[in-house]
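User: Sequence recovery, please. Input:
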């Protein structure tokens, strides 16, 4: 069975709009079959956005594994000065992100690519809601790729459920970055920060 962290264009399309309220604003995003959290704005991503809005975010910002653009576009709306790039291995998710970006008039770049493969320039900030179903090897590779693409003073922010490996993820981030801190905890989700 294929999961959302794949190129699954052969699935029948089921395009829909997702409506939700976040931090006092109403939003409508485009979603489709075969993408992560196709029917709702997922709690982990919303926690990550809310948490990083309290941080001194720097441009350019990379939303690694951006899906249908939820985190990228919420951040662009709340911090319009940020230069934001989102990448995802799933072309259908990128189509949804681009469509929503145009509908909401929130300019951000969305690229199809596995991890950072479509990128060459460094980033000051990386945000990641890792594709847990893709397996630990993929998730840890994305941690390493985040480290590699960050500038010297850059930061990675990760949201992960405790029951889905937050403790082991923190250990891996500590190994790669030499530091990690938990900056938020809510309903079983942790937001981890690692600085280069």
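Assistant: Recovered sequence (196 residues):
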């Amino acid at each position: 069975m294929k999961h959302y962290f794949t190129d699954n264009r052969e699935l029948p399309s089921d395009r829909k709009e997702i409506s939700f309220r976040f931090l006092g604003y109403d939003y409508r995003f485009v979603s489709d079959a075969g993408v992560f959290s196709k029917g709702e704005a997922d709690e982990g991503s919303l926690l990550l956005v809310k948490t990083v809005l309290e941080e001194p975010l720097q441009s350019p910002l990379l939303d690694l594994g951006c899906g249908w653009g939820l985190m990228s576009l919420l951040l662009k709306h709340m911090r319009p000065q940020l230069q934001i790039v989102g990448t995802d291995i799933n072309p259908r998710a990128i189509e949804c992100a681009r469509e929503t970006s145009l509908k909401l008039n929130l300019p951000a770049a969305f690229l199809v690519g596995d991890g950072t493969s479509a990128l060459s320039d460094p980033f000051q900030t990386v945000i990641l809601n890792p594709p847990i179903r893709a397996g630990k090897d993929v998730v840890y590779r994305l941690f390493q790729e985040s480290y590699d693409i960050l500038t010297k003073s850059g930061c990675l922010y990760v949201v992960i459920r405790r029951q889905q490996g937050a403790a082991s993820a923190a250990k891996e981030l500590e190994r790669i970055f030499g530091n990690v801190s938990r900056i938020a905890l809510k309903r079983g989700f942790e937001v981890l920060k690692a600085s280069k």
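Residues 63 and 72 are 6 Å apart (CA to CA).
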